[in-house]
Amino acid sequence: MTTAATDIPGRGNFARGVHPDSAKALSADMPIKAFPPPAQVALAVLQHVGDPCTPLEGMDKAKTEVSLGDVVATSDAFISAPIHASISGTTAAGSVTTLPNGRHVRTIVITAGDTEQLAGEAMIDDILGGDWPTKDIDSLPPGQIATAVHDAGIVGLGGAAFPTHVKLTRNDTKPIDTLLVNGCECEPYLTADYRLMLEFPAPVIAGALLAGRAAGAESVIIAVEDNKPMAVDSLQRAARGTGVKVAAVRTKYPMGGEKQTIPAVLGRTVPTGGLPLDVGVVVVNVGTTAAIARAVLRRRPLTHRVITVTGAGIARPRNLLAPIGISYGELIEHCGGLTGSAARVIAGGPMMGFALADLSTPVTKGTSGVVVLTAADLHAAEETQCIRCGACVDACPLDLVPTKIALAARHKDWPLARRYHMAACMECGCCAYVCPAQIPLVQLIRMGKVQMARE
Questions:
Q1: Which domains does the chain have, with CATH numbers?
Q2: What pLDDT shows up at residue 455?
Q3: What's the rounded Cα separation, in Å, for the pair 390 and 82?
């Protein structure tokens, strides 16, 4: 039986938001398949929020032998996460890549060797399949779990890429009572989390219990949008006897944002500029919990992740378990390539993703999907003057005034931008989605944050 919104403290909804076409049917019925072992990967040294990693000795030079799972780059900073080899082979000379967000970062290039690589069903079984015990989790020291998560290089796999061990490290001044697992996947087109919950719920449940234990949470709740009833049922069956609750919440964008999931499930409001920690909550993604289970129970680092490759511009949409560091172009080619109508390739989803200019760009830990839109998908309307309609204000799930923030960013008026809480914007895209003047609100705010930080 599906848990209804009335079975949780919150009402299963949040204020404002939008209802874009989900477009998930393109890939929702495609089971997770293993991407074939690549000939080469390029591992960016910055794949997370926080400080970039530094390559270990020899890793940015040619002919250093590495094995799958070896640490290749690390950092002493607390807000950082080490990077591991996603294939076995030898390093090539280091290079530089431009990430989808425009940042230029160093890469560690590994060329596959002659040793047999993890492939096919064996790879899926090793990473997601098999048994995931949950009975003795309460006996594990919380600090040991957080340390294992750090050493495995785990970051938020929902797209934010915040180092997960930071969230799970207990803060005595702000105790946690609830671990909230985000299985909403509200971004249009993307179905990686959906397929994970449907096909491999056991590591999600085990990882959720481990994360709850580390954070000191008394309760663990997994939130899933109510347009995914099969995923809800799958998780509920896997959660029987564990104490983990599964709650179906309203289907609305951006339900997957932690400041929207928390009021929907728990009825609590995170203050503007605040964190879930301020209201006694830690939020992690379902893919992240599966990675936590593998790190703690199988002592394996994060080297692969599930990625959706979809859109009307893709010949054969799929959900792929792929090694971190392969290129977007390789993912697209494996899915039959671009159709003749393909017009734009987006890293991530269409609401919060970045348009790609170079398909040789490598995927990172935060890559949840690749969406290829056609000319018919794109709105060709030209930008006009703001008509003060307030549609962006009505849609903003954080109760901000996007048009004021964007105007301040456009004119580099940083005191005004701060007054309207530009830093609090989650860049969800609701404002731009509803703007009748087609003002690129998100792009202006995103660039404003960068420029304000520099100046």
A1: 5-31+122-297 (3.40.50.11540), 391-454 (no CATH)
A2: 81
A3: 44
